[in-house]
Amino acid sequence: MARGRRRKLLLSRLHAFACGASSSQVDVSQVGGPGFSRVAFANESNSVEAANLNYGANYVSTTKYTVASFVPKALFEQFRRVANIYFLLTGCLSFTPLAPYSAGSAILPLIVVIGATMAKEAIEDWRRYQQDIEVNNRKVKLHQGEGAFRSTEWRNLRVGDIVKVEKDSFFPADLVMLSSSYDDGLCYVETMNLDGETNLKLKQSLEVTSGLHSDSSYQNFNAIIKCEDPNANLYTYVGTIEYGDQQYSLSPQQLLLRDSKLRNTDYIYGVVVFTGHDTKVMQNATNPPSKRSKIERLMGRLIYFLMASLVLISVIGSVVFGVITHDDLQDGKMKRWYLRPDDSTIYFDPRRAAVSAILHFLTAMILYTYFVPISLYVSIEIVKVLQTIFINQDIQMYHEESDKPAYARTSNLNEELGQVDTILSDKTGTLTCNSMEFIKCSIAGIAYGHGFTEVERAMARRKGFPLIEDEESKENHDHAKPAIKGFNFDDARLMNGQWVKEPHADVIRMFFRLLAICHTAIPEVDDATGKISYEAESPDEAAFVIAARELGFEFYQRTQTSISIRELDPSSGKHVERSYTLLNVIEFNSTRKRMSVIVQDDEGKLLLLSKGADSVMFERLANDGRKFEDKTKEQMHEYADAGLRTLVLGYCEIDEAEYKNFNEAFTEAKNSVSVDREEKMEAAADSIERNLILLGATAVEDKLQSGVPECIDKLAQAGIKLWVLTGDKMETAVNIGFACSLLRQGMKKIVITLEGQDIIRLEKEGDKRAIAKASKENVIYQINQGRQLVCSSTSESFALIIDGKSLAYALEDDVKNLFLQLAVGCASVICCRSSPKQKALVTRLVKEGTGKVTLAIGDGANDVGMLQEADIGIGISGAEGMQAVMASDVAISQFRFLERLLLVHGHWCYRRISTMICYFFYKNLTFGTTIFLYEAYTTFSGQAAYNDWYMSLYNVFFTSLPVIALGVFDQDVSARLCLKFPLLYQEGVQNMLFSWRRILGWMFTGVCNGILVFFFCITALQHQAFRKGGQVVSYDVLGGTMYTCVVWIVNCHMALSIRYFTAIQHIVIWGSIAVWYLFLLVYGAIPPAYSTNAYRVFVEVLAPAPSYWITTLFVTIATLIPYFTYSTIQMRFFPMYHNMIQWIRHDGQAEDLEYCHIVRQRSVRPTTVGVSARVDAKINQTVGVSPRVDAKINQSSSRRIHHVVNSP
Asked: Which positions are catalytic residues (predicted)?
């Protein structure tokens, strides 16, 4: 609608929003009482009374820390990890004489790690602080006396201030609206930042203040607002305003919430009632549930395991040390005189061996800290952040049409993406587009519309014959008009005014008249073209208004008291303009499941026009209004079979007395501020929505998103189970399941429903207790029957379909385990008519009952509970707004991108993180074992094998970067092959790369490598002359040689573990080794007061000695040979699935489609869901395996294809 036209709108009686003029005779008993104590003195925020209330300022902070709290809070967060507490304690002990090395070298690694993590926290909080500054410094016009409004920052606002907000600006606080640029105080509000909904909402001020249009009107304005206390409910508001010696009630219709935006309105005036953290949006700003991946939880247990092992070996070493010390004195002489017991008061005193053992325990705990990888946590955090950047930048998950890439909102769950066992998906807007198209309708018992839906096409393919369009439909298709969004209707009987020739033309006219009037859409007129578009609350409603327009009933104007349409007059054959007085709009909600309007036509008739779900509409029909009921129900059933969403349309005439009684009751209910306000309004609406005359039913199609069947097929091949949780009818959900290949012909369907005759009879009797008992028993019986059916067959696949009523009983504590056992035995599960709470409960049941990783995906506010309950929540940024995205862990714009997110990025992240953690434990155990063996070699005397700074920098400089590069860049299989062989994903689902067996294998390798390094070096150097003068090796030379071997071995082991080399990985691996030699040069050049026994050790001792280089080369090769041999044998003769794919790529057979198909078929049991399952079922009935390919497989038997991981 053009601006000039819209400015004269008069909407004070659009009762969906105003629900009648406010009355001073209302129930205000709660206002001023507990929970309703808020008082705002309008235009007097500086008064003494206002100051005494001491309400908070409008400054909003979303930061986690302040300048004063950052250090203590950040340190507290870091030392919640037991490993960091351990390193802190050992760091403190390093300042005592018990320490085997200097305090600085012990405390520096902890400072670096804690400092790096705190720096990351500080950077993230600084970004939040910058956002807070931007928001708090936004400008708004504030009344500053004498009718003058001047700009000020949001943060300066206080309760009671009067502000002027202009078009396309956000509201700076929660405001009570006083007036707007429209004559009667109307404004349009976008609430996407609050509830994710993209449609505009109408708000309206009280009639008594709606005439205050100018700045000067507020020069002497005074009012007192009393209302509810701050709370998180976005949809309720109870209060009163005292103005001009009168009291008026306030409702949510007058409340403008912070962070919503003013649209299509030049300006509004409002009084600030809630500021800062008292606003509803901030009351809702709770932190999402903290989620930790299974790998992270297991890693914590591994740290405890290592620390327990560390304590154990420290105890063993201390006991041995105590025994040796006790036996050290022989014939009055010390055996170990070189330990200088005379220079120690207790430590080596044979007479106090027990105390010596205790002190040695503390020394050992300090010395063995290198068994625990101190930099593990910070390295993983860095890697995960970099992984999310790669996910966000993946062009293959960018949706050009909506201009939205994938966005990982958290980095905590990257590896969890590679372990998903079950996906729980919404249907509408997730599997489908949530872009409705009017395609068919039933009017007066006659079906109209020749189009075919995607479900009908899938059903035709399932039955083995193509759809045959009639000639008329083909002809119409050939001369089709340009596509109109929301309208895909094709039937010459109704198009181009031909409906007037139909036998029930009067019913058809009322049908489309209802579609043009019964809605809350807002018309928008393009000034350039004159074309009308609509702002509607839902895609369904937009489709209805567009359909009415295209079929000759054009809604073009809404005023405060009327709706105007252009419709075809059958008598004259011309389009005429008709205006209907709008009396009431009774809104749709999930409880009512219907929407009604009451209008008065130009003849003075009062009409109730209603549309809603069949479950509530048919029971409201009058006895003489059911003429077409049977035919309509039959056609609606056919529409549901075709995957269409249906609504029933009906109307009735009401007399003035009946309307008067309703309007009084409805207005009184609306003006009530009691707790039963909503119930009173519903009772009033229910009293008038009776005795309807059936007109017919609409059928709109919600098309499948592009690539959904193919994506489900790939996920099924990967062994991932898919559950669909939807609020749609069972017939619609089932047929969408067939269209997207979640269901297929030949599957046995187990349907659990409470539509049996016994239950229906009890419902008619109305005994609620008997109904509940019988329903529960019926559901348990059906579940047990289904379990017996599943258990009795090993070859057939089953699909479980359950409705919302049955699901309510299936989720009860004593039934849910039975239900879960049945569900996990089925290939597909569809839960119909599910409420948001039921979706969350089902998700929790699957997560806790199976113990496997669950992923929930949805696009609407009704999916938020499900997303937060699942291990991973995926939000789709679709037509239902952004609330699901805001509650999600990862956001994508299309369901099909889930395939790449899981099978590619999920697999890579799982493999990288798993290998990275295992490698951390390996390299630290290799290093720690040499320290332990050297101390044992020196009779547990507490002597360190290496220079202090060698040990301190091992995890920080010489071995840290290669493992980070592995975590970011390594690929066992390319993205293309990950998608080509989806079964590879099962390595993560079965946790094959981070099982206890694999972890202990890496640990065992580390211990063995440490043993080999120590004994090879000791054997090679112990009795050899190391210098030209014949001097033997000192312990600093032995330490330098062992350290060099360890650095070479762990970095070369990394090189052997990497499957995908990049230049960066070459640089960090070989660069880390080079940095070690550079460090030896630089550190050895420092005066001996600082470098101690490392002073010039490399230049003068190690580098000139050939035995140093020979020993390094020999020990490195000899230590790595066992691992290299094991890896070769395992890959050649006992390959895992990724090894097989690597062989296929190496042999150049990755492009041989037939060969790859046979590899897949021999590697797994046949899938039961998806396009491939459907195709395989057909192929198995007609043809066998190709002899040529079978021969090729047999020739490759050395690769042991049958050892591939089987799908669970």
From this structure: 426 (4-aspartylphosphate intermediate)
pLDDT value for 509? 93
Judge contact between 977 and 1196, C-beta under 8 A.
no
User: So what's the pLDDT on residue 30?
Assistant: 54
Task: Name residue 1082's amino acid.
Answer: V
Closest CA to 1097 of 1107, 1109, 1106, 1088: 1088
Two tokens at 40?
């705002």
Give the ranges where 672-795 is alpha helix by DSSP (H).
677-688, 708-717, 730-739, 757-765, 768-791
Residue 3's pLDDT band (cuts 50, 70, 90) = very low
Q: Is 121 annotated as a binding residue?
A: no
CA angle 155, 160, 164 (to 5 degrees): 70
Amino acid in the structure at residue 15: H
Active-site residue set: 426
Say yes or no to pLDDT of 68 above 80: yes
Rounded Cα–Cα distance for residues 412 and 430 (Å): 24
Q: Provide the token pair at 1136.
A: 């895992």
3-state secondary structure of 494: coil
Annotation-wise, does 481 bind a ligand?
A: no
The mean pLDDT of 770-784, rounded to a whole number, is 88
Dihedral sign from CA coordinates of 64, 68, 70, 73: negative
Q: Is the model's pLDDT at 649 over the cut of 90?
A: yes
Identify which has the larger pLDDT, 1056 or 766: 1056
Residue 957, marked binder: no
Phi-psi region of 121 (alpha: psi -120 to 50; beta: other; left: phi over 0): alpha
Q: What is the largest CA-CA distance in the chain?
A: 133
pLDDT at 341: 62
Which two structure tokens, joined as six digits, stand for 255?
Answer: 């409340």
- Strand pairing of 261-263 and 223-227? unpaired
Please give the share of the chain, as a percent, with pLDDT higher than 70.
83
Q: How many CB atoms lie within 10 A of CB 1189?
A: 17
Closest Cα to residue 383, out of 1021, 851, 915, 1123?
915
Contacting residues for 374 by C-beta, under 8 A, at least 6 apart: 83, 87, 109, 110, 113, 955
Measured CA to CA, the distance from residue 589 to residue 593 in angstroms comes to 6
What pLDDT digit, counting tens, does each position of 443-461 carry? Answer: 999 999 988 877 677 666 6
Is the pLDDT confidence value at 1114 over 80? yes
CA distance 440 to 696: 11
What is the 3-state secondary structure of 543-570?
A: HHHHHHHHCCEEEEEECCCEEEEEEECC
Residue 645, marked binder: yes
Q: Are 11 and 559 in contact (CB under 8 A)?
A: yes
Quote the strand ranges of 643-752, DSSP E.
Answer: 644-654, 693-704, 721-725, 748-752
Distance, in Å, from the CA atom of 520 to the CA atom of 537, rounded to the nearest integer, reads 7
Mean pLDDT for 237-264 is 88
- pLDDT on residue 288: 59
Count CB-CB contacts under 10 A for residue 210: 19
How far apart CA 1158 and CA 1167 sit, in angstroms, is: 14
**Identity of residue 250:** L
Contact 739, 454 (CB under 8 A): yes
Contact 371, 928 (CB under 8 A): yes
The number of residues in the chain equals 1208
- Residue pointed to by tokens 């219907």: 594
CA distance 1200 to 572: 83
What span, in angstroms and rounded, lies between the C-alpha atoms of 655 and 832?
A: 40
pLDDT at 1025: 61
1061 appears as a binding residue in the annotation: no
Strands 420-425 and 721-725: parallel
Any binding-site annotation on 839? yes
- Please give the pLDDT value at position 1138: 76
Q: Which residues of 150-160 are buried (b: 16+ CB within 10 A; e: fewer)?
A: eebbbbebbbb
DSSP state, residue 1061: -
Amino acid at 973: V
Q: Residue 696 carries which side chain, given as an amino acid letter? A: G
